[in-house]
Amino acid sequence: MPILTIASFKGGPGKTTLCQIIATKCAADGLTVSVIDADPTKAMSDWHTNTYEGIPFTCISETSERSIADLALSLDEKSDLVLIDTAGFGNLAGAVAMTVADQILVPLTAGAADLNQAEETIKQAKGLAAAARRKIEVRAIMNRLSRTNLTKHAEQELKEAGIPTLSSTISHRTAFGEISYSGTLPSKGPAADEVTSLINELKEIGWVPNK
Ligand SMILES: Nc1ncnc2c1ncn2[C@@H]1O[C@H](COP(=O)(O)OP(=O)(O)OP(=O)(O)O)[C@@H](O)[C@H]1O
Ligand SMILES: [Mg+2]
Question: Is 141 strand, coil or helix?
Answer without folding.
Answer: strand
